[in-house]
Specification:
By secondary structure, this protein is of the alpha/beta class. It has helices spanning 13-24, 89-100; strands at 6-8, 27-33, 52-59, 62-67, 82-84, 104-110, 115-122, 128-134. The chain has two domains: 6-67, Signal recognition particle alu RNA binding heterodimer, srp9/1 (2-Layer Sandwich), CATH 3.30.720; 82-134, Signal recognition particle alu RNA binding heterodimer, srp9/1 (2-Layer Sandwich). It has a four-stranded mixed sheet, covered by helices on one side. A four-stranded mixed sheet has the order 5-8-7-6, with helices on one face. The protein is elongated and about 50 Å long. The relative contact order is 0.20.
């Protein structure tokens, strides 16, 4: 059994896909717009057909699924963080800076008792990330 995150970007999913491709080297494994669905009636009322019904990205060894959801324009991500562990401190600094571009740093990337690099950042969509290179 696997547990995979499924994120709803409330109308900003394509922007998020493009951002994660650039910031994290994410690979798009699958992407479908509402207009391409065999059941277009599944689209929420008033949602444009070019919005993302479902996408799956591979980030490192993990698959992250995402959608535009109800397209209300205000994605909300509370009560969790995604954690990423780059291979070394230099890679952690690059990933942290990329995720923080347009976002908010909650804890600057620094050495801690449990990691040679650890920091927390909310990206431009409000997704909380922890970047860590274990000690």
């Amino acid at each position: 059994m696997q547990v995979q995150p499924y994120l709803f970007f409330d109308g900003r999913c394509q922007e998020a896909i493009d951002f994660y491709r650039q910031a994290l080297g994410a690979e798009v494994l699958m992407q479908m717009q509402f207009k391409d669905s065999p059941t277009p009636e599944m689209a929420p009322p008033g949602v444009a057909g070019d919005k993302v019904m479902h996408a799956c990205l591979r980030i490192g060894e993990t698959q992250v699924m995402m959608s535009d959801g109800m397209c209300g324009g205000k994605p909300a991500f509370h009560g969790f963080s995604l954690s990423v562990s780059p291979g070394d401190d230099a890679a952690a600094a690059r990933v942290f800076a990329a995720l923080g571009d347009g976002g908010t740093v909650n804890m600057p990337l620094t050495k801690t008792f449990f990691a040679s690099s650890f920091g927390m950042v909310n990206d431009r969509f409000g997704v909380s990330w922890m970047v860590m290179v274990p000690a």
